[in-house]
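Usage

Read records sequentially. Each one opens with the input sequence:
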Amino acid sequence: TKFFKEPFVVINPDTLWNNSYLSELSDLEDLYFQHKKACLLLVSKNLSFDNSFNGDFNLQDGIVSRDNSNELIFTGLQILDHSVFSSIEGKIFSMNKIWNNLIEKKFLIGVKSNQKFYHLNTKEMHDKILDLNITD
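and closes with the structure output:
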């Protein structure tokens, strides 16, 4: 983290991204620079091609939370700065630990995506998505 002086975008490679996400990334950047807090792009479970997801988070008034009824899935797109890692010891850790620390302080904010969510988490799901012939 000592190498990152400025905020940075983290993009998970197991999500099918398209140009439609560019405006949502822009919204996420605007939110980050307005509040200077870690930001997540989230999507409703109803927009997930894979209906097996339980959900990761909730979003109310722009603040991210977690409980037993999480209605939103993390898309794999977030904006962070090096300060979120200050409580982490060691080189191997889960982002869930960081997110939980931020949620506890109400320092994790988010934007809700309007895109259909395609998560390439298994070979079977990859093949199903490939069969859709998505072109954009």
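Summary fields computed downstream for this record:
- The chain has a mean pLDDT of 91.
- The CA atoms of residues 42 and 75 lie 5 Å apart.
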